[in-house]
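Class prep. Sample record?

___
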Amino acid sequence: MYDEILVPTDGSAGIKRVADHAVAIAGLCEATVHVLYVVDETAYATIPDDTRERVREAFEGDGHSATKTIAERAYERDIAVRRELRWGDPAVAIIAYSIENEIDLIVMGTRGKTGFERYLLGSVAEKVVRVSPIPVLTIHTGDREALLAELDELIGG
């Protein structure tokens, strides 16, 4: 059912939980894991010209490191891996990569931001879930206890 699984990463600490789920599914399905890091070009565009090349190299280094971390988890289980770094709008790049590479499942993290913070910042995962023609499995990567406490308050418990 799942031959090609995409794991978009931003390199955050919570991605380990996401990678564990993706690798477990890939192991069960004998799937290839694709690891994608997208540098958000809107952030890059505001960088002064004199430091742009250094910052570009830093972003690319972060991307290679982030994709390598997930790839190593897959290699440990003898799972095939493809790594890629792209520039652009993260949600758009994730969807485009998925379509171009005939991805069957996207497994990605969400920090589970709620309320006003979510409306201010937006969410790459939320955008992908809303527009993806491909199934998306989201894994909460934020502070689980804080989220449970907030949910408990919301439901009046």
